[in-house]
Amino acid sequence: MITWTDSAREILERYTASIRGPLAATGADPDEVAADLRRHIEEELAASKILIATGEDVQRLVTRFGPVVADKPGRKGPGLAWKWPLAAAILAAILFAGWRSHFRRVYSASSTLLFEIPVTVVRKDGVRAAYSSSSGLGLNLEVYAETIRSDKIRRLVRQNLTPAENLLLEQAAKKNLLSPDRLGRVTVAGGDGGTVLRIAVESGDPEAAAVVANKFVETFMDYSEANLRDTADFAANFLQTQADKLKAEAASDSARVKQLRDAGVAGDAPEMQAAVAQKDVAESNYRALLKRLEQTRESRAPSRLPARPLDAARPDPNPVAPSARTVLRQSLLAGVAVLFAGSLLAWAVQRRSAGASGSAKAT
Fold this sequence. Notes:
alpha+beta; 4-stranded antiparallel beta sheet; 10 helices; 8 strands; 12% strand; elongated
């Protein structure tokens, strides 16, 4: 344990009294700092193997610590110095994003699909007439709209683009930064009493917008027809297997009836009646299944799809202004991005300033 002389205590008390004012100005607790200072001096003396602390020893240590300098009135912390430049940068980014979104030329094109069911009517004179019914379809167009909006259709559209169309879309994407997707902004909406779906595309080039809109219709038609064919093929294969089984059962039942007749069994005998009834049922089931199989195979035709292109998209050279929602979204995104970057920069500067200040005090 270190013994303190009166002169050593006097020098330490005089030093702590001189730094109380500056410490209070920095927000530190003077008593806590004084206790830490005494403990630090004792550690320094112990490291030097000094058992009795004299005034000269303490004076040498406090001189090395130096005076405490309080911040000048009105001086801000290192982080606050970035407040106004950061606010100005955020405002500039928001204004720039809003200006770019509002004045960037955007072109729109739309194509439409009409949903209808072919109806065949037999007139009184026996003539069969074909019509197209657009009322009472019993179809949920939202299901078809979700299919068109799906990622699978977008992926197929990209795969179906020709090299020339790909080049056109890449150039359009560079002109229009509102959508990172080179297909542009695609929306699907219903109309005309629930029988029409309209595919609208916004792009930086009028021809690109028309190409994408028409490509969506073409891809949807091909995809839907392929699904119908695949479903019909699966059903036809299943029905064909069942028909083969029923055909074999009907042949077996017919052979049983022939066998009974050859054996001289009377037609009104219970055994003969049961065999004939079983044969008739098997043959009836076989004929019904054959009819259903024929209908299933006919359904593979593309005309079974209850939709057809109504109006193809055409390039429109007149640009359209983006919606207020798009402008607001882009402005907010730009503001958040700049705020995040500025906060990171201010935090890094503050950490660096705090580190430099700590190193200076330790020295």
